[in-house]
Amino acid sequence: MAPTAGGNPLRDPRDRRLPRLPDASALVVFGVTGDLSRKKLIPAVYDLANRGLLPPGFVLLGFARRDWEGHEPFIEFARECAEKGARTPFREETWDRLASSIRFVRGSFDDDAGFDRLVQELDSLESSHGIVGNAAFYLSIPPSAFPVVLKQMERTGLADEKTAGGWRRVVVEKPFGHDLASARELNSLVDEVFGPEDVFRIDHYLGKETVQNLFALRFANTLFEPIWNSQFVDSVQITMAEDVGIGTRAGFYDETGAARDVLQNHLLQLLALTAMEEPVSFGAETIRTEKIKILRAVSLPDDLAHYAIRGQYEQGWLAGERVRGYLDEENIPPTSTTETYAAVRLNIETRRWAGVPFYLRTGKRLPRRVTEIAIGFKQAPHLPFDATDTADLGHNQLVVRVQPDEGVTLKFGSKVPGTAMEVRDVAMEFLFGEAFTEALPEAYERLILDVLLGDAMLFPDNAEVEESWRIIDPLEEYWAGTKPFTYRSGSWGPAASDEMLARDGRRWRRP
Amino acid sequence: MTTLWDTTGSAVVKALSAERRAAGALAFGLALTLVVVVDEKNVAAAENAATAAAAAHPCRLLIVVRRQIDAPHPRLDAEVSIGGRLGPGEAIVMRMSGRLALHAESVVLPLLASDAPVVTWWHDEPPTRIAFDPLGVFADRRVTDCASAPDPLAALRLRAADFEPGDTDLAWTRISGWRTLLAAAFDGRTDRPSSATIEADQADPSAQLFAGWLRGKLSVPVDVAGSGKRGIQAVRVAVADGEIAVTRADSRAGTITRPGVPPRRLPLRQLDVGDLLAEELRRLDDDAIYAEALSAWSGVPDLTRRSGHREHIWQDPMEQPPTAAAAPVSAETGPASAAAESGPVAGGGD
To answer: Are B144 and B172 in contact (CB under 8 A)?
Structure first.
C-alpha cells in the first residue's frame, strides 16, 4: 500500500501534482480597509483562489470601522483591490466564487458589540461554510491598537482553541515593538492570548522566492558551502535600497527611522539566512535554531562613530524628477533627526565568520529599488601574472539578487581575448524568470498560505525578534541626540558611508 | 528569424548560434529542451501549445515535422528564431522528408541544450513503442497523448505495456484538477469508502486512469458509467454517512459535495494542451503515482520497478505495413535491428 499523509487515503507525498490545501478555515483581517490589506492581502487571497490553492471551506472575513451595511459594500471594495493588485489575470468566475465566501463585520476595536458580532459571524460560518472552528486573525493594525484588540479577543474567547473546536492563529506585521523592552511586552501580550506556536510574525522578505533559494543555493550544492567561511570570504554586503521617499507614512516613519523600519527585521533576517549553519533538517524549529545562533553571535563594532552611519535625504533629482528633501516632506517637523539611511558594520563571533565584516545598508531615495546579498571573496593568495595584467581584476563575487530581477550573479576574472595576458571581471547570470517560470508568486501569497497550513518555517519567532532588538538598541542609543549626515536624493547615500568602507580598504558594490 | 531551405543539420546549429549572439543576454540559463514530434497537418496546434508552455517554463523548443518518408530525396528545411513568433525563448522548427525523417535524431542531437533535461512530446498518436522513435529514446521525460489516438484505450494499454518510469500521458494530466478537488474533499476524513463511480464515457482514457488511481488508493470497486457528454462529468464516492462528490459545474468550476456541509464551488478549469504541457514541464522526475494508476487500470504489475532505460529499436515503416506496427507490442519481429536489445517489455497489454 502506498504511503498516505494525515489519514487521507488520496494524499500521497510522492504525488507532486496535487497542491497542499489548508484546512477549511476563515481568514479574519482587522484593519481590512488599510493600505496593506488593499494592496497586498486581498490581491494575494484572490491569487490563491485563482491558483486553486484555497480549501473548499474558506472565508475571508473583514473587520473595520467603515459604515458599511451588510457584506455587499465590502465585497465591492475587495473586488476593486483584487482587480488592481492581483498578479494572476482577473477572472469573473473566480471572483464570483470567492465573493460568495467574503464577509464583513462592522466595528471599532473598543466596541464590545462589534466583537460580539464577529463571534456570531464566525459561529454561523461553521454551518454555512464548514470552517470547523479554524480561524487565522490577521492584525493589519498599528501596534498601539494591539492591546485593545487582544483584550477583546480574550474577552470573547476568539483565541480559545478548545471552545472553537479548531485551530486559532494570529498574524502580526512589523514593527514588532520599537526596542527590546517594548518588543518583549508586545510578545508576552500576544503569547498570553494565543500560544507562542500560534503566533505568526510576517517578515515578507522571507516569503520571496530568492530568499528561500538561499537554502537551496547553500545546502543543495557542493560548490558553495566549502568556501562559505572566513577562509575564503572577504566581506558580505547586504543592501536594501528604495527609490521612493516616505510617502504617506510621515507620522509612523518619523518615529521609526530606517534602522527600526528595515535594519532590525529584513536586513538582520537576510544576514541570519546568509550566515547560519546548515540546519539538521528543513523544518521550522531546526531553521530557527540556527538563525537564533547567528543573531546571538552578532556583535557591534566598538567604534560606532565610524561604523554606524546614518543619513537623511535632501532634495535632489531622481529618475528624471525633482524630489523634496526629508525635512520638506509633509508632516515632518523641520528639526527632525530621523534617519532615512542607515549603514552599519557587524561582526559575527563564530569560527566560520571570525574577521569577516558584514556591511548592512538601507535607504530611501537611492537611485534604484534593489535588494541584494553580495558575498565578496578574497583575492587569490598569489597571482602569477604581472601586476598590470590583473589591474582590472576585482574580487570574485557571488550576488543573490532578492529583487528585482530575482536571480544569482557570479563574478570572476577572465582573460580578455588578444595577444596580451589581460584579466578582467566578467559576470555569469542566472535569472529565475528565464530558467523557470515568469510568474513568481507574490511573497504574501506564500505567507498567507503557510499561516493557513500552520507552517512556521518562514516566520521569525519571539527569540529572533528580541535578539534583533538587542543588536539595534545600542545603535539607537548611540544615535540619540546626534544629527544624521545628509545625502542628496538620487545618490547612493552619505559620503561618510563610503568612507566607512574606504577605511577598511573596501568599497560599496553598486547594485 | 532565419529560414533555411534544403539545408543540413550543421547549418541549423550555426544559424542557432548566430541568432543567440544577435539576441544577446536572452540566451542564458537554459533549464531544459522540449522536443515536439508532430504531423504536418497539426503543426499550428502543436506550435501554439508548445509556445504557451515555453512561456511558463523557458526552454529550447525543437519542433520536428516528419513528412513524405517515401520522397526520393532526403531534405531538411528549418526555421530558427529567438524571441519571435514561438515565444520568448529559442525555437527551431524542422521539416524532414525522405529517409531523413527516420534519422531525425541526427539533426536534433547536436541541438539539445548541453546537459539539460530533454522532454519529448508526441502531439499526435503516440508511437506503438517509444523505443522505435530515437527522439524518445534520449529523452528524460516522454509525454504522449492517448486521446489523440483513434482508439484511446488501446493506445493507453500500449502505454502500460511499453511503460518506463519517466513516461506520462496527457490523459493523466487532464485529471490533476479533479484529483485535487477530490483529495481536498477527503481532507479530515479517516474512514474508508465503500465504492466509487465516475461519470464519463467508457472510452475516455482520463476517466479510466482516474478509476485506476481510485482503485489503487481506496481499494474499492470503481465504475466508469457513460454520461453521453464529452469528458468527465462527476466522480462520486460512497462513504458511511453519505456521498462525497465532485461534479463539473461549467468549463471553469466544479462543485464539491460532502455529507453535512453545504456544497462548494471551486476552480476546475478545462485546460488546453498548452496548460497541460506546462504542468508536465514543471517536474522532470518520474511520476510514480501515474505508474501506479496505470498499473491498477491495466493490470500490468510493477510498472514503477522498471528500469527507465530504453535502447533504440530500428523499425522501418517502409518495410512494414503501418497497420501491423499498430497491433502488438511484442512486435520484436521487425527486420534485423541495429540495436539488438529490445528492452524489457512485460507481458500482454490486458
So the answer is: no
Residues of A with CB under 8 A from a CB of B: 2, 4, 6-12, 14-19, 21, 23-24, 49-50, 52, 54-57, 91, 93-94, 97, 100, 127-130, 132, 429-431, 433-439
DSSP string, A364-415: SS-SS-EEEEEEEEPPPS---S-GGGGTB----EEEEEEESS-EEEEEEEEE
Contacts of B218 in chain A (CB under 8 A): 9-10
Q: How far is A165 from chain B (nearest CA, A)?
A: 14
What is d(CA B64, CA B43) in angstroms, rounded to the nearest whole number? Answer: 9
Which residue is it, cell 513516461? B167
Count CB atoms within 10 A of the CB of residue B338: 10
Same domain, A375 and A489: yes
Global pTM value: 0.83
The DSSP bridge partners found for residue B144 are: B169
Residues A161 and A255 in one domain: no
By three-state DSSP, how is residue A64 classified?
strand
Q: Is residue A336 part of a domain?
A: yes
Alpha-carbon torsion (A432, A437, A438, A440), positive or negative: negative
For residues A39 and A102, state if they share a domain. yes
> Does the complex come out with an ipTM higher than 0.85?
no
Q: Do A105 and A252 share a domain, yes or no?
A: no
Residue A262 sits in the same domain as residue A368: yes
The string of DSSP codes covering A182-218 is: HHHHHHHHHHHHS-GGGEEEE-GGGGSHHHHHHHHHH
Is residue A168 domain-shared with residue A271, that is, in the same domain? no
Band of pLDDT at residue B46, cut at 50, 70 and 90: very high
> Would residue A422 count as lying in a domain?
yes
A385 part of a folded domain: yes
Query: B237 pLDDT exceeds 80?
Result: yes
Q: Residue for cell digits 539539460?
A: B116
Q: Do both A166 and A254 map to the same domain?
A: no
- Asked whether the beta carbons of A265 and A468 are under 8 A apart, the reply is yes
Give the residue from B288, B69, B267, B278 showing the smallest Cα distance to B163. B288
**Is the domain of A424 the same as that of A301?**
yes
Confidence check: pLDDT of B111 > 70: yes
Q: Is residue A48 part of a domain?
A: yes
Range of the domain at A393: 207-441+483-503
Q: What's the CA gap between A174 and A413, in Å, rounded?
A: 42
Between chain A and chain B, the number of residue pairs with CB atoms below 8 A apart is: 120
pLDDT per position as a tens digit, A415-468: 888 888 888 888 888 877 666 665 677 889 999 999 999 989 899 988 999 999
Residues of B in contact with A100 (CB under 8 A): 265
Question: Residue A373 has which C-alpha cell?
Answer: 546579498
Query: Are B252 and A7 within 8 A, CB to CB?
Result: no
On whether any CB of chain A is under 8 Å from the CB of B327, the answer is no
Q: What is the CATH number of the domain that holds A307?
A: 3.30.360.10
- With an 8 Å Cβ cutoff, is B250 touching chain A? yes
3-state secondary structure of B143: strand
Total domains in chain A come to 2
Tens of pLDDT, residue by residue over A360-409, are: 999 999 999 999 999 999 998 888 888 888 777 888 999 999 888 888 99
Q: What is the pLDDT of residues A439-454, one digit of tens each?
A: 677 889 999 999 999 9
Q: How far apart are CA B261 and CA A128, in angstroms?
A: 7
State whether residue B322 sits within 8 Å of chain A by CB. no
- Which of A14, A17, A102 would you mutate first to test chain B, the one with the most B CBs within 10 A? A17
Cα B331 versus chain centre, distance: 22
